[in-house]
Design a protein that fits this description.
It is a single chain. The chain is mainly beta. The longest helix is centred in the first third of the chain and has 14 residues.
């Protein structure tokens, strides 16, 4: 039991270790949505994600660890998820969009 308590405390401490987004990636910040996915990226490096697919849902909340090109990695230690960004954030006529894991998202707020 003591071993699990130590692990839980470590996870809680590490979850506060998000690094702020680099200046060249601040255009990722905001609340991005479509009918099946919601993605919130904060400037402090916190990420919240939820996706509905195939009758189920997946959600992830955690620190953004790093960017790999346009893609970004979220999680702690060995428990990470890489988000595949095939189209990075771009503005067209005042509307911001990006495509993550094959889903086109629109920024609804910053």
């Amino acid at each position: 039991m003591k071993k699990y308590l130590s692990l839980i405390i470590l996870v809680i401490l590490l979850s506060g270790c998000a690094d702020p987004l680099p200046a060249d990636k601040l255009h990722y910040v905001g609340e991005w949505q479509n009918k099946e996915m919601a993605l919130l990226i904060l400037a402090d490096g916190t990420v919240a994600y939820k996706r509905l697919k195939g009758g189920g849902s997946t959600s992830i909340n955690g620190p953004l660890k790093e960017f790999v090109g346009d893609d970004f990695v979220v999680g702690i230690l060995f428990m990470t998820t890489t988000f595949d960004v095939s189209s990075p954030p771009q503005e067209n006529n005042g509307l911001w969009t990006m495509t993550v894991d094959g889903v086109k998202l629109t920024r609804v707020s910053e």
